[in-house]
Protein 1
Amino acid sequence: MNLPVFAILAATLTIATPLVWAALGAVINERAGVLNLGIEGTMYAGAFCGFLATAMSGSLAFGVGAALVSGLLAGALMALLTVTLGVNQHVAGIGTTLLLVAVCNFTNRLLFSDGSQTTTEKFDRLLPGGGLLSQYPMTYVAFLVLAPAVWWVFRSSGFGLRLRAVGENPEAADAAGIPVAKTRYAALILGGALMALGGSFLTLSLLGSFTIDIVSGRGWICIALVIFGRWQVWPVVGGALLFAVADALQLQLAITPLFSDVPNELLIAFPYLVVIAALAIWGRGVRYPGAYLKPYRRA
Amino acid sequence: MKVLLRARESRWLAPAAVAIAVLVTLLLTAGPIRLAGANPMAAYQRYLVTPLTTVGGLNEVLLASTPLIFTGLAVAIAFRVGYYNIGAEGQFLAGAAAATVPGLYLADAPAAVALPLALGAGAIGGTAWAVVPAWLKRHAHIDEVVTTLLLNPVALLLIQGLLNGPWRNSESGFPDSDRYGAGYTLPAIVEGTRTHWGFVIALVLVIVTFVVMSFTPLGLRLKAAGQAPGAAQFSGIPVVRLQWRCALISGAIAGLGGAVQVLGVQHQLTGGISSGYGYTGVVVAALGGLTAGGVLLVALLLGTMTVGAQNASITLQLPTQMGAIVSSTLLLAVVSVLSLRHYRLVFRRRSRVAGEAS
């Protein structure tokens, strides 16, 4: 069996891109102590708002801007619920996801009820014909700018240190004069923006259009990748690549004659099962951030 | 004016908070309803009142509430012991698929054999879908939130795979299964209506859960394990084992819900068998305060809104997704306002404070 290795690797980078954006957003949230199950809805909102703004204005820049703003707002909503009000984070996150998905589907239905699903402009691949390097701009940004930047922020910047402090031990951080609520707000808003931009990759780079259920569980995958990568930037990126290579492989196998008898659904389920298996093997005994799931109230 | 933490919750605050949250929800959702060109008051009337005013409407409400009672109860039981099962969707689907096995391969069984068989298969299917996350949680401390979530799309793919492969409809060739044998029908409670005995099964489960939670030592242990796992463990309650069992029971109930849905409503397996019932179950459980009675009430409320949303989409041209917007806004509003009751506002003048101090 001859597998087109380069094609699979090129597809891997493309598939991993939205996961890297959103999972790094989730890392930022969780290192500050907040589990954001609104991630699926935030990616959905980013995908939809990006598409809608591009369709309305005809400009991709507007689309990216709208996706960014939708992510900032989704993050702020999550922060209001979990930081200010101290709501159970599982309930707040699922509620946020359900709300955002419903609002996007509602708006989509209102604007395109006659089934006239518009296609918009989309980003072109850089370096066409460049093989592995022929990728969308957001792929380049994800691996060459975003991941190193987030890594640097956590390692060396004051903001990163404060963020880790409020996620590990908010009492101590508070005593040291770090504003706990403000730092968590910043983390959630920034993380939400990254998630929404990741979602916008699906509409503005890959498809150039919007379909119902376009995110289809990628947000949940990211939550798994963050645990798998133990809240560290590069292992999380590695996890995204692992999922993506499994996904690229199944896409390739689906069109390989040898596998024509294997049900397509089994192949599609394969990457999900890989992630669960990877968690089962490497996810044992991970150490969660100290203040994970805990709202902070000054005694 | 200062915001202070309350030392104790006062009794009347929770109902007042829910009332405020309902008002907030109505205000927030009025905008989108107007945007869609409908009158908010007319829409709310369709959502909350119209379905309850006719016998046919009430019937539809009970029918729409039934799967939500199952998934809501499943989520509530798990959340209550601190096991965050967000996989009720997958467990519901697995139960529906498992109930289909006898429905297709033992199609000739008489109802007295067929129904227990199919319902039992559904419960086992749901449990089977819950067992991997629960086992990983118990033995490897792997977060159940992630594993239960990830298995939801896998369950849907399993059903799609079966429907595109061995279970493809033998007459139409469409990806939905053949109809089950005649014995595999949950009969209607009242002849000629659509509400079936699945609703009664759901009610029985609600009552059993209520009794266990409220009146038995086990109920108290479950509550302790969920609210203060450290203290519970210290006082000899086997927290991990309780979580493991509740996780499996939770899966069984969700799976039973899937079986009831195919046996009572569809009489065949289809890809769209769950319209997000598992996720809505989280809303039902959270709004119901993780209690059996609360789950029942909220499931009936959301069932009413589902029927109302269908009604409003026809009469007011309001997209059905508005129903989902209202229910998720209601969830966020209720949990937000409820969390505010832990605080109190204190208005006082400085002189009085000084006077008290002296």
Protein 2
Amino acid sequence: MPATYTLISSTTLSSAQATVVFSSIPQTYTDLEFRLSVRGTSSATIRNTRFTVNGTNTGSYTLLQGTNGTAVSSSGSAQAHIQSGITSAATATANTFSSHSIYIPNYAGSTTKPMSVYSAMENNSATDFYLETYASLQNQTTAITDITFAISANNYAIGSSFYLYGISNA
Amino acid sequence: MADTPTKVIVDCSTGITEVLPLTAQEIADMETARVAAEAERVEREAEQAANAILKAEILDRLGITEAEAKLLLS
């Protein structure tokens, strides 16, 4: 990691949880980056992780999605939540997790908040390869102080981890 | 009766992490978001399926394979 990366806070789940909240995010960095390693408990191969900023949810996105070698793209506006993307779930390869990277520049500023998101599913099978990349815009202009992650069904599994880094001089 | 879902709160100013039950409102909001996410997924998959059918029809009309179409566009 470059010297400008500073670990602000992290948590690794020791019990299944429906949501994970980072509160009182310090305003002393230029950018934020989240790194997630997540898996869901519901009976499915994949679920989605989403997040809200300061408890509100207005935003838009452009999505590029790859599924087993097929690429598709889509977009949406006035979304109910911001997508963080693919999340392995209970019927995916055992003990595998999905990796997410969420980059938020100028999070403490007074303009709308663009965000980039990359997520991919770890997989040891011959099928079920998934990745998603989002370019998102969160419409609120207030500084980001709280971010809440949630999975689209049931809970995050034990061992899921959430790391928040502050980036200076970006 | 199912256990009340819980959340982890990481206070970045203190480093303290605590686990709390979700409120009734938070549970309702989660359910609303879950239904919306599922509807979005179904809509996206339907669009992808429709596009796949359309693509196959176009290839059939042109009389070329998908590999040949990719070669033409490369």
Protein 3
Amino acid sequence: MMIEIILIITIISILYINFLHMFLWFESKNSLIKNNKKTIFPSISILVSAYNEEKNIYSLIKNFIELNYPKNKIEIIFVDDNSSDKTFEYMKKGKRILEKNEIKTKILKNEERKGKAYSLNRALKIAKGRFVAVIDADSILEKDSLKNCIKHFYDGNRLNKKVAAVAANILVKNPKTMLQKLQNLEFIMVSCFRKLQEKINAIMVTPGPLSVFRRDILLKLGGFDENNLTEDIEIAWRILANNYKIRMAFDAKAWTEYPKNLKKWWMQRTRWNLGGFQTLGKYLRYLRRKTNLRKFIIPYSFIGYTLTTLGVFISVYLIFNSIQNFLLYVLETMKYGTNPFQRFEIKYAIDLFTIFGVIIFLSSLYLISISFDSYKFLKNYSKDENNKVDKNHKFDKISLILFPTAYILLFPLVLIYSIFKFFEIKRKNISKAWLTK
Amino acid sequence: MNVYLKAGILTILVFFSGLILGIWLDQYRLQDVKRRIATLDISWNDARLLYIYFQKIEKEYCELAFNQNLAYNEKIYKEGLEIEFAEKANRFTPELIDEKRRYVLLQTQFWLNSIELKEKCNFTYNNVVYFYKQHNLTRDEVVDQKTQASILLDLKEKCGNKIMLIPLAADLNLTIIDAIIKHYKIEKYPAVIVDNIVFQGVTSLEKINEITKC
């Protein structure tokens, strides 16, 4: 009976989330791209925290030079987080190249490895731009990405005082391995849903590969949380907790490197989950306050984590139970000299849960098709010749099959692992070790 | 209208539509079971009356009655599988248990008739009655019952017309079944009665075959 109750709550929750996103799509599909009549170019500081990124620094510098943004309005601040390779030397060489191109550049170096949030806060303190863009050193920005982010801070020519941050559209850079192709599909979907969630002030993360913030608001809120494993999630929640808004620039694309193998993927997702738990724990009390976190983000995260965890335990219990029963049956029938497989037949009766399973499957399929449609729309919309990879991108058939059948199943597993890790970290107080991974 | 509200309303509508569809499906299966039991009931009465009629006017009624009994045995077994299938799927039809009780009563009548026929006509076939629990099963009981069912089906395959296999659910609160259980002192499930000999717990094919001798 308990299992049935949990199943019913899960069904209602998934149906609600799916329908909510469908309605958001109907209301937003014609306004995925914001078109301001006049392009505005305020000053912007680009903050880059790097650790052992020597192979990416030059392409990043080349990328900065090619940006469709007035060079005199850009300031670059590199922070080397005490790299053990030649990152710092390359930054210094890069500074000269950038300054030849009339882009003001500063370089900072941490004396010991302090983590991304600390490095960004150091850069934030000396930044001069009206806006700050935070980017990862392994990201590649589309030429118009900064321009396209900035326009979301404005309504016409007037600055919207409530918009504190704009999240870009993050995709996987050169997806080669199957895992990267699967992540690419995932991020295409995530981007679409993030854009839809903008309408209800429910953007839960300002992604590290590219997000733009109002510098004054970021300073007022105290900068990035250096104790959180995912400073990009935490700052987004803090912005919403203070009743500011986050927008998403669907046409501001940034490509970044994502794990090639399962081990690195697992570690990354564990870190994201741990950061998510930290953030949820920090802001759970905001459920009582009238903020942008209350309506969707906190209930969604809390119910999502709880139901997924329960779902995994129930599934494992049921599967284990069935296997155990089956094995016991096989052993016992063999003991009595009868063939256990002689009358083996699969006969399935359609019941209440099958009906809901079909409804959930179809509505999820519709949402997936929405995200692919939005991606295709964006592909055709982009005029950037640098974007050839994206233009020529075709969905890999195997990844399309593996995504709903195998890849999605990894998420609950990594969540359970993260829960155990979370308590281990709490017990042993080793969160700093995770910060530097 | 607020998008949260719209999604909420649609969720409620879809959820209740799914619920109604689920209830309708359960009802459909229940009606199907009812129809099957009614058909079985008619078949039973038909066979029973034919048996009485033959007894009165025909001297050589035994062979005919035996064939009737055998055909009924096969039919009732197949219908039993359908009821079991509906029992697994249905969630909203507690009435299904009453249909199961009616089914068990028909099976019991069939068994008693089989005993009577065997005595009157001096048949050599054996009545193999399989008692199983339907509710509150432990893991061991589930495994034991599945194994016993498999052994008995092997026996039926081996013996064919030489045995009448009659499965009976023991825990459906039926006075007749309770009386039989008391009479045979059955305490452990699965239990098998071959003619008048009782086996409790999983019983091997060889052990049962010592009596049936197929």
